[in-house]
């Protein structure tokens, strides 16, 4: 019961922090990652549910995409969790997960060592693909003032949103750690492939 109260309190804190976020890394993204993490943990029958839940809820708080460093995030997350009198081990594990979760344009080569981290990373990556992933990609592209597609610079994620599919989204299926994550990723990956086929067909006026 105590863990459930902690999770609910942290949900309120995070929802307040991400309320006006408009890049696709908002509270609803966080809640989906939390729910998917819990679903994967249940399917796998593994992991500490409190650590998984807290890491999922805090994974986009003070994220590097918004200019924060790992040290910034450690301080902010510690400040959020300190009132709940959690053990140092739990807080350290949550910080370890959130500081090593991100794709970081394919530059993050760190392999998460804990099952809790792998579950949350799978859930976060799942929300980046499929129908919702497509919507989030274009929301983020709009935030960055990127065009939908620039055929003269095709494949460059810094120039258009379609490039982001090739730089990141189409690679995520093969990066899943858990069996449940791999299964969920298959259909979402297929939706993206079909979307890209349709997009390019319509781009050519067909």
TrEMBL record:
<dbReference type="InterPro" id="IPR003607">
    <property type="entry name" value="HD/PDEase_dom"/>
</dbReference>
<protein>
    <submittedName>
        <fullName>HD domain-containing protein</fullName>
    </submittedName>
</protein>
<feature type="domain" description="HD">
    <location>
        <begin position="26"/>
        <end position="129"/>
    </location>
</feature>
<dbReference type="InterPro" id="IPR006674">
    <property type="entry name" value="HD_domain"/>
</dbReference>
<dbReference type="Pfam" id="PF01966">
    <property type="entry name" value="HD"/>
</dbReference>
